[in-house]
Input
Amino acid sequence: ASGEHVPVLVIGTGYGGSVAALRLAQAGVDVHMIEMGMAWDTPGSDGKIFCSTLNPDQRSYWLRTKTKQPLNYFLGFPIDRNISRYTGILDAEEFGGIIVYQGRGVGGGSLVNGGMAVTPKRENFGFVLPTVNPDEMYNTYYPRANAGLGVGLIDSAWFESAACYQYSRVGRKHAGRSGFPWGFVPNVYDWDYMKQEQAGTVTKSALDGEILYGNNNGKKSLQKTYIAQAKATGRVTISPLHRVTSVAPAGGGGYTVSIDQLNTNGDVTNVKTVLADRVFFAAGSVGTSKLLVKLKATGVLPNLNDEIGKGWGDNGNVMCGRANWLWDPTGSLQSTIPCSGIDNWTAGGAFAEVAPLPIGIETFASFYLSITKNPNRAQFSWNAATGKVDLNWQTAWKQPGIDMAKTIFDKINAKEGTIYRTDLFGTYKIWGDHLTYHPLGGAVLDKATDNYGRLVGYPGMYVIDGSLIPGNTSVNPFVTITALAERNIEKIIATDL
Ligand code: FAD
Output
């Protein structure tokens, strides 16, 4: 309620925010979490909480009147459709040179992501988080994060016979024939549940096109792991459809947090202020960066240092498809949950997930999301004329990432005598270079903050999400975000409370 005084306020309910809330609550601290998206705990008129990618409705997108599908073309035709404006689950946030996809709701990105739970190879960790001790991460915090998230591996015997992973087996065959290492990728999906989906004994979810707009069964989102545990302590309160707009030092200590309450049209229905002794920024790389850049530039938090807003990267994301021969079908039934990847990081700077194209028909296409070592970094800045925060990323900055992904797929195409698909992102367009799923940076560890996420100049203010990571994790990012949050919150609880 407005005027309330809380010991800890957490902005956002994604990975960083959920770790902070759980560990603080276990240490005996009351926590209030503020989330701009919906709770996603109530079924719609179709009896389901989430809609599928095969039939997107208002629940799919954050305040849009038309879908903005990442794969926006098929056979060269646009496939986006009209929807009603609603506080839907996936935000396709448009900056000048890139669309940044993000989850909106209690659970943040865990609601919409592919669940791929990958720990970087230890030899690459110095590149990922150069100021963090790898021993403590690999001995303590990565294992803790994997356990907390419920990470597991596919049953490799079942994989060989599952119709829904024919696309991965084709991916393995092509990788192997070109001499690339291929391997299973861990996931938070309940693999036993998926076996039952394939056997036809439970309601289908991964096998029914559910992923980008939420997953009704099987996926262990944060709602089922960290957030469930946090709520069970009795010390954590969550306010969905509330958006933080400002955090300002309060006269008598602590911070005054300004919050807009939203309705499902996105209109502000109420404005509240809360006094918090401590504030954790966990609004995601984009959300946290936007808040901090605005608050510094408008003089609300003038002591924040000049690293705020810098060091933002796209985790080198680029997408592409390949057209297979008619004797290499990838299957009309495809699990939305990817289970494998091709590793050419050391030689070529690319790690490619063998991704599904789950549209219910045979496409004879292999589809990949590559994570590359693209060195380009962008910066957020305050635009006083528009009253918004801009990001200076240019579409052309994807080129190094495309070149790295080509070290894998040019070779596979040459070996297989195949070509790239040109119909998935437009007409005659090969590369999905217009987007990222993996925004990272903007409040980089040991630069904008100290080496544990404490914001320089403001005691009791912390960053604890993907904005701490300097632009790239060499693999999918959420395990690293979670592990870093586990490391930082342990230190903060031990020394600051
Ligand atoms: P988030 O999870 O983004 O959480 C931030 C939360 O803060 C959100 O719920 C947001 O609504 C809320 N918020 C923002 N601003 C405010 C505000 N002002 N007030 C209140 N609340 C606010 N990663 C992987 O590792 N594996 C994958 O398979 C994978 N697949 C992906 C697929 C898709 C389609 C997408 C979009 C992402 C995927 N990711 C994947 C990326 C992963 O989900 C993110 O890296 C991760 O969620 C980031 O965690 P975070 O804690 O930094 O922030």
Remarks:
- The first strand starts at residue 5 and ends at 11.
